[in-house]
Amino acid sequence: MRLAAHGINPSQPEIFLRAFKVGRQLEVWARTRATATPFVLVRTFYIAGTSGTLGPKRREGDGQVPEGFYQLDRFNPTSAYHLSLGLNYPNASDRCQSDAQHPGGDIFIHGSNVTVGCLPITDAGIEELYVLATEARAGGQDTIEVHIFPFALTPENLAARRNSTHAIFWQNLSAGYTFFEQNHQLPHLATDARGAYTVR
């Protein structure tokens, strides 16, 4: 990725990942670490395979790609899907709202073009992203956030899907989505006792 072309110090990248099910896109946003400058979009990968439908993951085996606010928690160079970056699913919100005994797990961004609940971006795509994530971590970025949305959570899109069984959940996600859209800064997120996300 040509970080310098976007005004980012290639030796000190801070990255943020944002995925959308509708349109099947995984965006890479970046800035120079330890600065307050806004994130800029530096790369978009096509999500080469998908499973499940719109809506969050709530139990093991449902085939759903999670929706919500996550972090990378594993770097797997020996993945069955070439390379993979693991997400911290289930997070605190998922543990409140998903099947208590069998919420599922092992959700990754990985190579290939097949999946059951993960985000495959082809072997070439994961090679590029894996190197960037490794460089960001080596440069001092302890937490790499990954936000996964069903679609762009604009008022218009939410209104068009207001009768969905997931409408309340998506409305809850929209505060974090909107904060980033308006500021190109990451929101400070928390989870309440019911598993709802809050922006602080």
Automatic annotation (TrEMBL):
**From what superkingdom does this record's organism come?**
Bacteria
Which Pfam families does this UniProt record tie to the protein?
YkuD (PF03734)
**Keyword Cell wall biogenesis/degradation annotated:** yes
Q: Sorted alphabetically, which SUPFAM superfamilies does this protein's record hold? A: L,D-transpeptidase catalytic domain-like
Give the pathway annotation: Cell wall biogenesis; peptidoglycan biosynthesis
All copies of domain L,D-TPase catalytic, residue ranges: 15-149
Q: What is this protein called?
A: L,D-TPase catalytic domain-containing protein
Q: Which organism is it from?
A: Hymenobacter defluvii
